[in-house]
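pinging the channel bc i need a second pair of eyes. not urgent but kinda urgent?? the chain im working w is below, pasted from the shared doc
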Amino acid sequence: MTNVMRIKALFLITGLSIIISCSKENPKFDHGDADFSYYVAVGNSMSAGYCNFALYRSGQLNSFPSMIAKQLEFVGRKGEFLQPLMQDNNGMGFDIDGDIAPRSHLVIAKDCKEENVMIPEPVTGIYNYITDLNKILSYFAPIAQGGPYNNLGVPGARSYHMNDKNYGRSQSVIDIALGNATIDDGNPFYARFCSDPGNATILDDAMKINPTFFTLEVGSNDVLDFAVNGAESTDNKITPFDKWNAAMHVCASRLTSNGAKGIITTVPDVTSIAFFKRYFWNNLPIDDQARVNSLSARYPGMSFHVGKYNAFVIIDSKGVTRQIKPNELILMDLPMDKVKCEGWGAEVPLADRYSLDEYEMQKVFDATTQYNNAIHEIADEYNLAIADLNMYMNKYKNGGWVDGLYISGNYITGKVFSIDGIHLTPLGYSIVANVFIDAINAKFHSSIPRVNSMQYLGEEFPDE
């Protein structure tokens, strides 16, 4: 054998050894007791990939259902995982002030005292209902012809909207473009891809996939809308339990009607989210003793001192003017310039909608507990796995290590929540995807590979 032949033979043997070695080291992926051929995701804004105050293309591509779909390819998922993608990375949503706007990013700006502060700001400014009407409408142009879609996450959807024929009506697009939208009058985020606006429901469109497996992530907005608005109104009342429970049973019954298996989520404790960790109960700054004296005279029995950390003065849900308690919460949309320069939270007590007091927090806790008890019963009745996001978020809200990363529920620095304080970063969504995958594997004896969270970033800070 010539030297050349010996070298070729050596390379061939070495290559075969590497291939054999790698094949032994790779885990064997198995679908277990479930059929993952056709996967559909039914949910709200989390399933849709909403983040940074908007729904936009790259956020959707990093939705947790999209991540799960990729991992399900290892255990037999077929075809393309279709999502109703927005047209660009500006997208459509509502900024911190509630104005219709593209996604926001973090910027360094001057506050009313000419000091540098980091704030969320729409990337191209807010959309005007008059001058930008055509642009707004373009984001909600009908795309049903591209379906049926596998990801049926609809931002803003509540439990009972899943089976509401009115929810996909075309008029809802005009309503939002003109600023007239209400919570139960239809949803333009669904109307844009609804297969038959005004007739089809989200569940109808889910069944068009003929799913063999599903994720069901709904029910949280039924209590979240109340919590993040700080005060009850017509559009943010907590959904009564009987109505919520009936709607959730309809979802589980319909999705399993053809034999599909699936997983349902618990409702997270919404008070653990970053929306309530941008500001705290004692973030009222007082610069001089004269103001301390004036406030003490104005509010006998209340305590103030010179420094950055004083308790805000609020009007609570009972109409009582008092200082906020350490266990009560301040909403992240509190206009801090009003606090620093116009006396808000001191001479001008904060309106109820800027805080969550003990009574309101108890309402949130009671509803969440009742919902989650029912979710366990639904999971048992329909043989569903449970992704216990409530347990998971409470476990890590004050910090902990996950997949080699230190995360928490803190605003921005916690890496998990996007700058709207409610929805997740791509990193956060990857962690949620793994909560689902772990629960699916445990329930159905499958071996779906987990998502590599290391490849996803948390929130990005602005340049100085």
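so The longest helix spans residues 358-382. and Confidence is low (pLDDT under 50) at residues 1-26. — does that match what u expected or am i reading it wrong
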